[in-house]
Amino acid sequence: MSQPNNPSGQQKPKSKKAAFQEALMAPPWFPDAKWHLKTLSIIYSCLIVAYFTISHLLSSLPKPYHLRKIPMEMTPWLHPGGKVHLSEEQLRAPGETRP
Q1: Which of 32, 41, 45, 72 is the most interior residue, by most CB within 10 Å?
Q2: Calpha distance 52→59 (Å, rounded)
Q3: Which residues lie closer than 8 Å to 79 by C-beta, 6 or more apart?
Q4: What's the pLDDT tens digit per position in 11-68?
């Protein structure tokens, strides 16, 4: 005997065991290249926006908390075309005496 058609379109609720077996039979979801590209682009764009936002907020802080500009003499490796070597006397803080 065949089951009668249900005109309302509703089906009987499945038991938990039947639903679990059906879930095991369904193929699992695997991300494809398009999904990876979309996800990575969202992550990178959020990181870039966050970097520039935080950088702008930190640069607009008042005097004691603002980002300072490090002089070239303190970091000569950041400016390879500038002065590369300074003497010990020039690198000392003002008023510092040698022991």
Answers
A1: 72
A2: 10
A3: 72
A4: 667 788 888 888 788 778 888 999 999 999 999 999 999 999 999 998 888 888 877 7
The neighbour count for residue 76, using CB atoms within 10 Å, is 13
CA distance from start to end of the chain: 105
d(CA 90, CA 99): 16
Tokens 């936002």 sit at which residue?
A: 53
- Kindly report, residue by residue over 59-90, the tens digit of the pLDDT: 888 888 877 777 777 777 776 666 556 677 77
Contact between residue 66 and residue 59 where contact means Cβ atoms under 8 Å apart: yes
